[in-house]
Amino acid sequence: MCHDIDSRPPAAPVVTGGVAAHGALEIGAADGNRFLAYRAAPAVPNGSNVLLLPDVRGFHPFYASLAHRFAEAGFHTLVMDYYGRSASTGSRDDAFDGFAHLALLEPHHVETDAAAAADAIRAWHPGPLFSVGFCLGGGYSWRLAASGLGLAGAVGFYGPPRFLGDRTAQPSAPLLMLLAGDDVATTPEQYATLTAAFDQAGKTYEAHVYDGAPHSFFDDSYDQWQEACTDAWHRILAFTARHSGKAGA
Hints:
Layout: E1 19-28, E2 34-42, E3 49-53, H1 61-72, E4 76-80, H2 84-87, H3 98-102, H4 107-124, E5 129-134, H5 136-144, E6 153-157, E7 175-182, H6 188-201, E8 205-214, H7 226-243
Parallel strand pairs: 3-4, 3-5, 5-6, 6-7, 7-8
Antiparallel strand pairs: 1-2, 2-4
């Protein structure tokens, strides 16, 4: 499991205001699938949007809380679930077995649902759209940079490279890679192979490794990784500002 039951997302170091509106909803995809989502709107927008891609648990309550943290930092934020096709739109609490449904999840499912989620976000708030994902979602966040969604950038925390699959050489949006130095899910060699492929293809990316940090270090309950969480937030804020044309604003 990517997080413990007591995990909680760290707050952004720069807060523009509170959360103006929030709540769960269902979104329909082009192939007829309906999936869970959660929207959090900022009281003081910064002009950009975020599509949050969860870990293997799908739309777990951890990600509703994280959507609030992004909204507090000024982002119109939408979390999408992965498992509408195999698990309908029921609860994704701690009793939900995401691994059982992961085996049924295909890349085109994620891309199709992400396209519908992106349309929903843009209908609410036009502006630059960034994907931000964690573990499974980290890999898919980078993949979506090659999926024709018009992303301004794609951020991934400790994403397994295998989820990029045949899209590894295709990203058209810049990537931010926030990696755990002591990741038990992905080895440094696997990440080195991935970044070498990006280099060969001439893709734009930034990669930062947090030495000694465990997989899923982005968690406020890890006292020893508070500085890493804060640094990761600063990198996200700088990356999104730079690639939305707001750097230095």
